[in-house]
Amino acid sequence: MLNARTDTYFGGVTGDPFDETVERALRYIEAGADCIFVPGVVEADTIRRLAAAIPAPLNIVAGLANTIDTLTLFSLGVTRVSLGGSLARAALSLVERAGRELLLSGTLGFLDGAISYAELQRRFDQ
């Protein structure tokens, strides 16, 4: 699958990013792209308009420029949702909170809800 990326919503376009995105998407599709990847879009209405204007599956990043949940993104017409570095950022945030908690109070509250060592090992044994 060829997922063609356009960074029009990260800046760098002189005109309207919506129009530029659609124009690029149409050229990408004509060149053989299967999906159009548009990271950096913030507004739900813009995402809905992009999905309607682009005659190919639309890929949006959740958690980068917007915090729109995946079910809403799908309801807006998005076909593929990427996370980019969101999972890594979430994991690193937990590491930072854990370190701060250990340093300041010495407690282990950051482990609340964590998978047990035995369960983790069981999953690796499968």
UniProtKB/TrEMBL annotation:
It holds the Pfam family PEP_mutase. Keywords: Lyase. GO terms for molecular function: lyase activity. SUPFAM superfamilies: Phosphoenolpyruvate/pyruvate domain. It comes from the Bacteria. The keyword Lyase applies. The keyword Ribosomal protein does not apply. This is 2-methylisocitrate lyase-like PEP mutase family enzyme.
